[in-house]
Amino acid sequence: xxxxxxxxxxVPESTTVVVIGAGPAGLTVASLLRRCxxxxxxxxxxxRQHVAQRQRAGIVESRAVRMFxxxxxxxxxxxxxxxxxxxxxxxxxxxxLVDDSxxxxxxxxxxxxxxxxxxxxxxxxxxxxxEVRYETADITLHDLTGDRPTVSYRSxxxxxxxxxxxxxxxxxxxxxxxRAAVPDGHLTAHTFDHGIGWLTVxxxxxxxxxxxxxxxxxxxxxxxxxxxxxxxxxxQCPPDDHPGAWPDSRVWDALRTRLADPALTAGPITDRETFxxxxxxxxxxxxxxLYLVGDxxxxxxxxxxxxxxxxxxxxxxxxxxxxxxxxxxxDTGLRTYSERCLRRVWSDQEFSHWLTRTVHDAGDDTxxxxxxxxxxxxxxxxxxxxxxxxxxxxxxxxxxxPAQDHPAxxxx
Length: 412
Ligand code: APR
Known about the structure:
By secondary structure, the chain is an alpha/beta fold. The protein is 34% helix and 24% strand. The chain is built from eleven helices and 18 strands. β13 and β14 form a beta hairpin. The protein binds adenosine-5-diphosphoribose. Adenosine-5-diphosphoribose binds at residues 20-26, 43-46, 51, 56-57, 114, 136, 139, 171-173, 176-177, 294-295, 307-308, 311.
């Protein structure tokens, strides 16, 4: 664009952290930094209204609830009812209630839909004097390996802005610009594709008594709460399937069959999409002064509800690491950020993989064969009958498995 058409701002702005992306990861990083007096500027591509209505995850695990509580934010940013700690597995129509709270002291998980968390984080951050700039475009990162990176972007009125900072938090999700700014050869991408497709449906229909995972010879199905009058459903489908192949009647017939609930109450379907169950981890999660957070660094299949909770975990570690750098000139947290995040990422990837294989192989075994089906059935039988297995499962569901909590992660 000719120089005359570009309205260059006069003096580059400066802040400690430029956060790119205003989803769960970005707003959590910015909010925690604000709470410890570290300034940041959040740059978001979409409008505030668009981001506030994006419905994805639906549970904030116990560990994340306690993390927010430790920052004095839990009552401000968490909505939805407490999770009663009961998960229902329905195997060929037979119900098995599993305790997925580990019985430890302290607040438990919350059935807080992602959009509620994002809305509350945004309102809290802005009320705290935080700054979020929406509808920014053409974000580019410069000098990431120097001491003062710069971020330039175009605001909605066409003005080009430049911000110098000490750190850039890449919170822009799987398809953002920050990870793409890392030169080739610095990041290793580890990927896995389960060869399984899911249709996910959002409907104004009554939520289940407990989050429900159903194993059936017709394929996997799930029913989760997304508010007092809203539900999210999942249906296993061919990996290359598309939403158009699933008219309402087919969706409700399949759910009633696989959930073994002929009387399941239907409701208006408000969202419908298909995707493949896959996982992706980028290692390391940092490059120079750029730190990748949440989906920008890793993607996990929805089994076990770990996607958003991993974003919250990364955000907590990064906020504390930047605080220690700014206030105590201690770079230990920054230096070990990637290693500590990846330890939990791989643990949650393993748990999600285990649960994904178990509930799919145990049901429709056309893609895995009878041997793996029997292994999966044995895993379910162990989970339903062994207290030790149930305790290990609960620790992983809560995110409170002690092996993952590094001393630095709990230091205040
Ligand atoms: N510039 C600025 N903002 C961007 C850009 C860009 N180039 N690209 C993406 N974004 C914004 C998106 O509009 C979105 O608001 O970054 C944000 C990324 O948010 P998420 O994709 O929600 O990722 P994250 O914050 O890591 O949260 C992970 O979100 O998508 C779910 O299932 C996922 O539950 C998980 C959670």
